[in-house]
Amino acid sequence: MTFISNPRRDASATIAGFVFQVNVTILRWLELREDEHLELERGEDIDTVQNGDGSVPVETRLLEQIKVRSGRSLTLRSEEALEALSNFCNHRAANPAWNLKFRYLTTADSGVEQGWVRPDSGIETWMALQRGRYDDTTRCEAVAALRAFSDRKANRGSVDQLWPRGDARRCESGLRTPLRVCLPVAMSARSKASDQKQTYYRTPSAFCDAG
After folding, report:
1. pTM of this structure
2. Pairing between β-strand 99-106 and β-strand 179-182 as defined by DSSP bridges
3. What pLDDT, in 10s, does the model give residues 55-87?
4. How many CB atoms lie within 10 A of CB 156?
5. Which of 1, 15, 56, 138 could form an SS bridge with 134, CB 3.0 to 4.6 Å?
6. Torsion from C-alpha of 160, 119, 65, 34, nearest 10 degrees
7. Coil, strand, or helix at residue 150?
């Protein structure tokens, strides 16, 4: 006979999230430099803090949010993406003296935003900007597209904080947003439950190729 379980007692997704966060934490600990330390559940799930000294007058904090997601893609319209933008801007407002960076690490695939017109999706465009993959012209066009898209959404203020309006010099000199979005780079399609479970327990570095 087959035992019929109560699906509301299934904690596999919660446990997978805990395991993934622990794996990423171990990886970040192994990657620490001499002038860095970790703080867990402080600003976000994992904070990598670079101590200020003579060469680095201001302490730098990389706030990393970890999300295990299955069955749906991530876009700039997703609740999780809007929440991440809001959290980062709140951190910046509360800590103006800090040099803050933000990384959103997820197992979700990127989707295409409704109403988005560029070849790359909004999330992929954001990632390409952060990694410096565009030339000057394409970079400025991409920033303008993100801002125009955000004008129709609730996150306009967030994008304006990251890419100030009218800052042509910053765009021309090689803009870098302090917010990273890291998506799976080793697996682009996962449909079987066994594949998804394997994804949770893989080496976390496979999910982020941001430099």
Report:
1. 0.70
2. parallel
3. 655 789 999 999 888 778 888 888 888 888 888
4. 14
5. 138
6. -90
7. helix
